Amino acid sequence: MLDSPAMGRQVHLWCYGHFGPPVIVFPSAAGFAHEWDRQGMLEVLAPLIDGGKAKLYCPESNVSEVWTAKDTPLSTRMRRHHAYERFIMETLVPFVRDDCNWAAAPMASVGCSLGGTYAALFALKHPETFRRSLSMSGRYLMTEFSGGENSSELYFNNPLAFVAGMQGEALERIRRNTHLTLVCGQGQWEEGCIEETIAMGRLLDAKDIPNLTDIWGRESRHDWDYWKKQAAMHVPRLVS
User: Average per-residue pLDDT in the chain?
Assistant: First the structure.
């Protein structure tokens, strides 16, 4: 548990590994810190973790107060998202660097489904901290979660919107410092995810932002069986 002044409470955090570059793992819409453990993702990544090639830090999220809280006013939802962003940058990142005894540790961000959205968001908004990211079956058009309602606060957490408008030094920061990997299948339950993943990859290309878009076949579903395979392929590349 970590005390978070921004969140106004303690936040659950599960940690794995004894050595190696740190990887921040954002949970899916469930929001649970123990999700990757319960879903068997750590078994897939055991060679990295046990071999001292990566340390995984899995915080809970407040996604149920933000993206899936459809009956809550958008302004309130964005305030809760900002509080979570402050928790990550002001509490979790310093904790991880201290735990790794590595003051300027370059971090990777990873997630599935809405966790993939968080992984991409943090890399795009904080590229000097999150040098690489992996988003599996993420969503990138966040007005789909606001019923079409928009605001300046939502704009800057809506990747297909704010990245399209980026230019100058803000864009150069991303180009210099980070790399995004977007993965998505074309199978069952990937509706929305596949279209937005392709659109996001094209936008990153158009903005000359370092990225890899990896589209899997029609057998690849929006579930943990395929996210395990995708993680096994791509997470080692984040920490190499």
Answer: 96
Burial class (CB in 10 A: 0-12, 13-18, 19+), 168: exposed
Positive or negative: CA dihedral 59, 55, 211, 201: negative
Beta strands 9-11 and 2-4, pairing class: antiparallel
How large is the C-alpha radius of gyration of the chain? 17
Number of structural domains in the chain: 1
Please work out, in degrees rounded to the nearest 5, the angle formed at the alpha carbon of residue 227 by the alpha carbons of 229 and 141: 140
Query: Whole-model pTM?
Result: 0.96
pLDDT in tens, 176-216: 999 999 999 999 999 999 999 999 999 999 999 999 999 99
CATH of the domain at 216: 3.40.50.1820
Q: Which residues form the domain of 214? A: 2-238
Report the alpha-carbon distance of residue 175 to residue 41 in Å, rounded: 30
